[in-house]
Design brief:
The structure is a homodimer of 329-residue chains.
Chain A lengths: L1 H5 L6 H11 L18 H12 L4 H25 L4 E2 L2 E2 L1 H26 L8 H29 L6 H26 L4 H28 L2 H4 L5 H4 L5 H10 L4 H8 L6 H13 L2 H23 L5 H15 L3
Antiparallel strand pairs in A: 1-2
Helix pairs in contact in A: 2-5, 3-4, 3-7, 3-15, 4-5, 4-6, 4-7, 6-7, 7-8, 8-14, 11-14, 14-15
């Protein structure tokens, strides 16, 4: 990962500096830091574990893991501009420090660097044909992410978004990279296309389950555990799955009241109480929880078919799936 | 090119629509059009000619040409956001029609699609190892472009930019893609690394010469031929090469007067007269013209070493170089 970002430094030190800042390696004057939150790195870890679970060696998948993490961070840099997010991981975002234009450049450069990391698979003994296959899947996956982000931005101005629209959107924006990580990790290990496809199904279900659980926590999570205000997603008017399920279930009833609430800039505490009461009345929480359990079960089934033999890597992956049922932050 | 953009349509029709609009294939309601300026396509043409001049077949280089044109258009979509450009090729820019956020997505998607086009080289009988080599060069070249754009934006707020800084910047922002097109075209034809490198030198000199000539036309071009106002680059306060040469040559003299002029939003006609008089006094135009001739000569020398045998493709390339000396629009 560091080698790929170093490739930005020779033509333009500031470009590498913005990338390293975003990744949590340096401060805003580009001096090294070692006490900064660098994110959970869930996606690259998954690629490594799937490579191992499919019988491959960890070292072979390292360039893949680096490419995935760089790609994820490219999308975050651009998302932060699009969402006008002032902070990420408790630090100022790239665009707030260097402006939107330079943040667009920083994201573009990380995207290019992600490819350079990926091509390094060739140097780890992965066949050139297979590297090209993985690279094509990598760009198709990126298109799915960008398509999901396009839909998400479009949802903000639409009143007719359905739960199905939402699940299609997060399948791209959130879950496509998890699916790719699992599938490509297995491909590097030499898995058959069919086995790699099962790993991909496991990743897709895990990614979808993770996002829906995130939506649950955004409304019913404990503030002390999530580090956000109670019902934060209601206050910020996020059209997350529970709200879309509620819209679908209320039909005509209460929709005028909801429209009035969501026409405000921010929803106040009495409004939050009303939405919580409607969510309870229409049994939205158990419906969303059932969906998480469905994705949980799909992820387990796909993984057990993909990796029929028990191994420490498979156990670690099963453990990740269990977090879907128990995660509280 | 169309196949690569089609890859955006399945996950998100609007994403493909914005890309096709920018490329001049559809109107803003995504209906096909056939009377729209699609740009000069100089870069992909150069890749095809260099492939032929190095003894290769045109069909083999088609995916390369598509990838180069898609990449170029990705950078234009993002540049238009950064430069707040309202129009391009006589039409509204993507960001003015769909907003900055969706324009960021449209550019990102074109960048991913450019890679998909490039990987198609494998299907044209280019060896997988060679495709990977070209792909790595493609991403390194993109980093050079983004680094150049980063420097260019930075120059706007700096008062101490030298002609050398500027030439380094355009070597990335403008000439890197021309260098890559020439070099990769030759590589596909099976040229040795040394011969491909000479093609790259030809491309670099051509790209640099083209940009400096553009700068000359921006100040001394005839309005009837360029389609822009006379001395348009002075009016818009562009820090192009002639202005930077003037700054260097005036030293302390007149620099206060220039500072005052360039502190205005736009330079009026008496200001333009003053700048033109200073440019004449300090012999800036002959200096810039001499530089174009130097790049012209470098391009010819490199091409004759790269392609020692006469061929129609080489003749066409020599003709492109001659435009450096005679182009008036």
């Amino acid at each position: 990962m560091r080698a790929a970002v170093d490739a930005l430094a020779e033509p333009q030190p500031a470009l590498a500096g913005m990338g390293r800042y975003h990744l949590g390696w340096v401060d805003e004057s580009f001096a090294p830091v070692d006490n900064v939150d660098q994110g959970k790195r869930m996606r690259p870890e998954l690629a490594l574990l799937c490579c191992q679970a499919a019988g491959g060696r960890l070292e072979q998948a390292a360039p893949l893991a680096a490419a995935i993490e760089l790609l994820h961070n490219f999308t975050l840099v651009h998302d932060d501009i699009q969402d006008r997010s002032p902070t990420r991981r408790h630090r100022a975002t790239v665009w707030t420090l260097w402006g939107e234009s330079q943040a667009i450049n920083a994201g573009d450069a990380l995207f290019a660097a992600a490819h350079l990391a990926l091509y390094e698979l060739r140097g780890r003994g992965v066949d050139a044909e297979r590297v090209l296959e993985i690279a094509a899947a990598f760009d198709r996956m990126t298109i799915e992410i960008v398509a999901g982000q396009t839909a998400d931005l479009d949802f903000e101005r639409r009143a007719d978004v359905t739960p199905d629209d939402y699940l299609t959107m997060i399948a791209g924006k959130t879950a496509a990279i998890v699916r790719f990580a699992a599938r490509a990790g297995a491909t590097i290990a030499g898995a058959s296309p069919e086995a790699a496809e099962r790993f991909g199904e496991f990743g897709l279900a895990l990614g979808l389950g993770f996002q829906v659980q995130d939506d649950l926590l955004g409304i019913w999570g404990s503030a002390s555990e999530t580090g956000k205000a109670e019902a934060d997603d209601i206050r910020r008017k996020k059209k997350s799955l529970p709200i879309l399920l509620l819209r679908q279930r209320t039909g005509g009833d209460n929709s005028a009241a909801l429209d009035r609430l969501y026409a405000q800039d921010e929803i106040d505490s009495s409004g939050i109480e009303l939405v919580l009461a409607l969510l309870a009345k229409h049994d939205v929480r158990p419906a969303a929880e059932a969906l998480v359990r469905t994705y949980h079960d799909q992820a387990v089934s796909a993984l057990l078919v993909a990796a029929p033999e028990a191994s420490p890597a498979r156990a670690a992956l099963l453990n990740r799936i269990e977090l879907l049922a128990s995660r509280s932050k």
